[in-house]
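BUG: 3D viewer hangs when loading the predicted structure for this chain

Environment: internal workstation, default settings.
Expected: structure renders.
Actual: progress bar stalls at 90%.

Input used:
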Amino acid sequence: MVLSVIQAQRQILESAQVLCATESVPLHNALARISAQDVVSAIAVPPADNSAMDGFALKSADLGSPPQRFRISQRIPAGAQPQALQANTAARIFTGGVMPEGADAVVIQENCDYPDDTQVTVNCTVRAGDNVRSRGQDIAPGTLIVPQGKRLGPIELGLIASVGEAQITVYRPLRVAIFSTGDELREPGEPLDAGQIYNSNRTVLSALCRQMGYEVIDCGIVADTMSATRTALQRAAGEADVIVSSGGVSVGEEDYVKSAVEALGSLDLWKVQMKPGKPVAYGRVGDTHFIGLPGNPVSSLIVFQLLAQPLLSSLQGEKWQAPAAYQVSSAFNKKAVSREEYIRVQLQLGPEQQWLAHQFTNSSSGVLSSLGWADGLVRQHIDQTISAGDLIEFLPMRAGVL
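Structure tokens produced before the viewer hung:
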């Protein structure tokens, strides 16, 4: 049975349980790691009411009709502990300064006259709460600020730091073994003989995995023989949590990956109703997860994004989410398809200030340069006809990632 993309994703996700042990690391070492714990704030941020501006703190009820003069009873820089506000006085206060007891508003200094440090004339009306950042305005005690399974970016790390935590418990990096099959493949830097090409898939896949924070085990190029394929799979299974291969999963006489996986473990999924990328293999080599990608560069990358990445994210402990799709207008016509198709497009601004998706001229799955040109992919559903002007689903790609 040939599965749809969403059916394949569901089947893969159902079999993916978190594999990784945890460790506690300092925040400065936690970028791009996956949180293994809920981080709940024990404190309020800010911890006390404070001024949002440089100005004068006062009790709003003390201000009648402006202009009105007040004696300056104290000076409150950020980081200082103020005294209670004396009745009918104002306190000189600076951004971040703690509000004194009895004050409920801040008048910004631009709306005041203060010839010296002893008195100030307020030239505007003021309401309780004006220019005051209340305690817990950002984060209240007990707030969940980072959930388990969240990839830690700069904002998440900043939030954790803001509640005073210096360490975070994360999952250890997933170990991913990567190899390519094909007697025609050569490494960059080597001379090419007739019929040979340079291997780009392993470079792309390794970079994607490193970009996602995984530990890459490079298993090189594997010859197109059953014995070499089995040896590579066994070696990879002994060193990695997951094996990712490219090439050798079709039905040609020189394609050995599918049968080798079946001999060493189990094959749970083969062929997905998508273009590019129909030949896909998912299963296990012993107890190690395996996913086999097509050999053509575009197919390999797109299948990795849609099927391998959900597997890897889930095994790493990350809560995987399907790529967000946006509505754009088509600038091309395309007949209905029998397989879900992912079309390389570039966005250009149309005459009515709408985004128009322009299709790449060559739809071959071997044209890697098309992905360098493209802003993303348009998903064409089975039996969907696309006409110029239609609203279509656009999946943006950022640095190669959907």
